[in-house]
């Protein structure tokens, strides 16, 4: 099959959608299919057309949307698969699909991360609904997202969970030398909830907090650590290799994920595979992980209570040995493409 995957951004940009699209595309190529990525993240230092791991990548800028639409329309393909409802990509794909069969993985979490984006999301809903109605199938990556899509758009999504490449995270335990640490992983944005963990660190004086990620909220988090008197306990890291990230998971006493806007929560699976217990937000998609051994859930953010819950995690033993892999995801999608 000839397959076009359309994503707002693509690696080397970092994010869950970017990782998802790259993972399924590379595996589809390995299974003998022809995959082209169309993405709207063209910058001066990135080539317009490149090839990585057998996948052709075509980058455009938002200032050249007509060219982007025309290129999708004119590129021969059996399948057009758009990603991320919270961008213009599915709508643009629906407009330019021609006779291609359209599929949408929505990565939908129902609300925007700010008041402004919430307003935009509300205004966009009629257009988003039209876009989803044009798709042969709308794909959800979690039970929570599937139910949300069904309730809000009156559709019947197909559930294909995100995958994990288990090999980096099932290594012998990493023996960390130094102070024990709690781990947070993700883009540095207010909705990720790292600020709540920083405030709780004053009640965990024997632990450090390692935050892995980058983003515009960095300076605010640094200021918050200083105001809370825990600046010497908070360590920021980014641009880690997969093997180094796996070590950080394995060496942590606990992993805390309190994000309010997720459709799956890939880092939770990676942490549990590494043998590290997790504290996750109960509301939203992260709450789906609460049924796994070694995982607690809460909506509490009060520092003292949160610190007690983190300490409760220390004694948990995860058991998560048979995750859905990216190979499984790619094969499920190819079956869906063929049967719809």
Helix content: 25-40%
Gyration radius over CA? 20 Å
Number of domains: 2
The number of helical segments is 11
- Bin the strand percentage: 15-25%
How would you describe the overall organization of this protein?
There is one protein chain. By secondary structure, the chain is α/β, with parallel strands linked by helices. It has two domains: 2-163 and 325-339, Rossmann fold, CATH 3.40.50; 167-313, Rossmann fold (3-Layer(aba) Sandwich), CATH 3.40.50.2000. It is 36% helix and 19% strand. It has eleven helices and 14 strands. It has helices spanning 16-30, 65-74, 89-96, 115-133, 143-153, 194-200, 218-227, 242-251, 266-273, 303-313, 326-339, and strands at residues 2-7, 34-39, 49-52, 55-59, 79-83, 101-105, 137-140, 158-159, 181-185, 208-212, 234-237, 254-257, 278-281, 295-298. An eight-stranded mixed beta sheet has the order 3-4-2-1-5-6-7-8, with helices on both faces. Strands 11-10-9-12-13-14 form a six-stranded parallel beta sheet, with helices on both faces. It is globular, with a radius of gyration of 20 Å. It starts with a strand and ends with a helix. The mean pLDDT is 93.
């Amino acid at each position: 099959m000839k397959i076009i995957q359309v994503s707002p951004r693509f690696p080397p940009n970092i994010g869950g959608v970017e990782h998802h699209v790259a993972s399924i595309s590379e595996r589809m190529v390995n299974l003998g299919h022809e995959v082209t990525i169309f993405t709207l993240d063209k910058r001066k230092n990135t080539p317009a057309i490149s090839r990585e791991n057998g996948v052709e990548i075509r980058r455009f800028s938002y200032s050249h949307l007509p060219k982007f639409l025309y290129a999708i329309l004119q590129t021969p393909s059996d399948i057009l698969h758009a990603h991320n409802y919270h961008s213009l990509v599915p709508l643009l794909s629906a407009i330019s699909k021609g006779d291609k069969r359209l599929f949408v993985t929505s990565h939908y979490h129902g609300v925007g991360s700010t008041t402004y984006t919430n307003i935009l999301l509300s205004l966009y809903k009629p257009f988003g609904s039209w876009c989803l109605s044009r798709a042969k199938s709308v794909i959800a990556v979690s039970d929570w997202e599937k139910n949300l899509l069904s309730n809000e758009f009156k559709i019947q999504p197909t559930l294909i969970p995100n995958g994990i490449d288990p090999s980096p995270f099932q290594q012998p335990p990493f023996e960390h030398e130094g102070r024990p640490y709690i781990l947070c992983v993700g883009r540095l944005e207010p909705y990720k909830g790292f600020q709540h963990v920083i405030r709780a660190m004053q009640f965990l004086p024997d632990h450090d907090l390692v935050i892995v990620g980058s983003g515009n909220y960095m300076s605010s988090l640094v200021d918050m650590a200083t105001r809370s008197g825990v600046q010497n306990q908070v360590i920021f890291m980014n641009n880690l290799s997969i093997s180094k990230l796996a070590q950080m998971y394995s060496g942590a006493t606990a992993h805390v994920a309190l994000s309010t806007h997720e459709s799956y929560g890939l880092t939770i699976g990676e942490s549990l595979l590494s043998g590290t217990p997790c504290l996750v937000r109960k509301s939203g998609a992260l709450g789906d992980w609460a049924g796994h051994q070694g995982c607690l859930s809460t909506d509490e953010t009060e520092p003292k209570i949160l610190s007690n819950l983190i300490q409760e995690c220390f004694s948990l033993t995860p058991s998560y040995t048979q995750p859905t892999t990216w190979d499984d995801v790619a094969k499920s999608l190819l079956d869906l493409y063929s049967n719809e």
